[in-house]
Design a protein that fits this description.
about 850 residues, mainly beta, single chain, about 5% helix, about 30% strand, 7 helices, 7-stranded antiparallel sheet
Length: about 850
Amino acid sequence: MNQHLLYVKHSVGRRCFCWLTILGILLSGIYPASVLAQKEKKKGAKLPPIDIAGTMLANAQYNFAPSGLKGTALGQPTSLQFGPDGRLYVSQQAGIIQVFTIKRNAANDYSVTATEVIHLINQIPNHNDNGSLNTSVTTRQVTGILVKGTAATPIIYVTSSDSRIGGPDGDFNLDTNSGIISRLTRSGTSWTKLDLVRGLPRSEENHASNGMQLDEKTNILYVAQGGHTNAGGTSKNFAYTPEYALSAAILSINLTVIDALPTQGTGNNAFKYNLPTLDDPDRANNPDGSDPFDPFGGNDGLNQAKIVAGGPVQIYSPGYRNVYDLVITKARRMYTIDNGPNQGWGGYPQNEGTANANNNYVVGEPGSTGPAPSEGQVNNLDNLDFVGSLDTYTPGSYYGGHPNPTRANPAGAGLYTHNGTSGVWRTSKTGTPPLPADWPPVANANPIEGDFKMPGSSLSTDLLTFTASTNGMAEYTASNFGGALQGSLLACSFDGNIVKIALTADGTDVTNPRNTTNKLNEDLPFASGFGSTPLDIVAQGDNDIFPGSVWAVTYGANAITIFEPQDFLVCTGKYDSNDDDLDRYTNADEIDNATQPCSASSMPPDADGDYISDLNDIDDDNDAIADNFDFFPLDNTNGLTTVLPIKYDLFNNSPGTGLFGVGFTGLLSNKTTVYTELFDENNLIAGGAVGAFSVVNTTPGDALGALNSQENAFHFGVKASTAPFTVQGRLLGPFFNNKTPQNFQSQGIYLSNGDQDNYLKIALTANNGTGGLEVVYENAGSPVTTTFPLPGGIPSSTLDFFFVVNPTTGAVQPKYAINGGASTNLGNPIQVSGALLSALQSGKAYAVGVIATSRGPRPSLLPGTFSM
């Protein structure tokens, strides 16, 4: 797993990795009890909707109560489904499948009575990208399971791939042909595995073969196949890998044809179908003409799988960046939600919008860090697509909007390969270096796949968009609440919500309230405030076990939440102090937060669990320090229980607390502004599977001197001791949006007492238009700034910053390292004093964090992408 941006370690060598870290000691700011009693609304509180009755009563038709499943021990759960045997099947990212027998003890009280653990997927061998066996990788990434069969003989379909995750961290030599679809069959008390299809694409980042649906009428298996790029073009953060012939699409797999093939291999290595691959020019063929190791080892596309006319694996619907799940409704309509492109992570293909789109790398990655000539900058929105009705749909006729030049322009797309130092665009089978002799891997061009369709735009055919990563989906089919929810889709969002999608009668559109310019969903959530980063969901029908209930896995909390229908409750939805849904939050508090006052499944954010939302609570961690004075407003011990060593991976479940679950418990404080006003969550890309933290556009503001207007400076607190320690933080390129840096733009790490008057910062900065390094030490509001040249200019890949701290003497040595190389001292050690030195003294607490700065008056286009 990636370990990014900032870590803190003892000088004796034990490491603590942190994403974006601020360690700080709590200073004064305790407010009197009279202020506590006021509970005034924070700046930014939402006003109740004008049409309270209409808005609330439209959502008063259903009420669910949440509870946690007892008796589970999960790690990064990714998918779940009840089987025909009434048991709950749950996959974990690292390849384990757990099967739970569940008992309902009473209302909203469920527990596991028996657990079966299946290890078969992790017994699949892993390979490097040249095809050679890699026995050191002993897990498989699993993001999708589908359970079928009978009660006596359940069957699990599983998608798995190489578990390494590179991309922003570089090329990890993972097998880009490692995607496998396996079928596990239970007979008696044992399971057997048969691999149905081997050699599907796998990105250098974490996009892979994901969710599945089976049309039992035709015996066609549909697979959500992730893409290799951010917006269609090769990019640094995806290790320069282009889209393959079978990537970025919904695939159809004819199981009737697959099952008719002879079984090859034995035992756990038995398989049915190897996808045919290109004739890799880097491999000497076997005597029979085949490539060694096939179908494994994608070799950056030189050995990618080919689309075979009439073969059992075909493109059903093209144009998806990273679809996580699929839904086939009772009416046999297919829907999906695509994870849209992130700003700063990669741009459009060369010649985007034309039939001549290709795989060449475009310097600056236009579309990623700014607009391209043919298209604006990507908008980071996920989007709902109605693919079509299974009974009338023509395969390939619906295009999701994510380009794939290999399919758009097979004869002219070429192949871009990168050796870790430099890249080359291969365009000839006879050139040096050459394309494979049987290039291209696609016979027929589909020119529309050269055109990027901006999610939510008038040119896009999507129905609805979402600001947060939206993944697992299910249709609610039960007849509870008089059928009020029947036919609605429910989807898990990484912001902690489960969204409800109401479809029109013909299924071709939604009735959700939505923004007229970008189709952004504006409906109230089905569920919220119940757990960290829900990822997958299942809704039980009238004839299923636990009918009418909804079950979700929360990836960040390693838990399963059950939503049980409460048909007996009546809700008015009035803006008052009543609690119609019995979740202990008042109707008014819920309406302020745009959560459901009529359903206990939807609750507002409440960090301290005192049943007053964070929006209306002036002390979010209940430590008797007002949020605008609290340097750690989401840590009621204010750093005093966080000790070295610390390892934060910048995943949403590591440590699973603080902002976005990545561990930040505060922002650099000016002791006036509430912490929630110092960042915009829609301007951040936090955590996710890759483990990085991005500030998309850095807002004007600076902590320097008397300004104290800094935003986007995130930290957490650590208890001080006498032992020397090191803080390390990593910045990921591209830096300064691949543009000439401007004065007062900077991004880096800091050590502080927690406020904007006492801190030590090391940052990448402009230095009058050329990239340089800056060290700022500010004591009691008086700053000293020292700038240094950056040898070799702005790095191509990563920039590491270090503070080597002696807390006893107060000496701090700033250091840096370029592209993962050896560290270099940056000037002489700095002697800190005052509040910062006090924070470093044993028994107190200091803040460590990451910071992105752009002094006004103009908004900055400077992104800050951090990893720890």
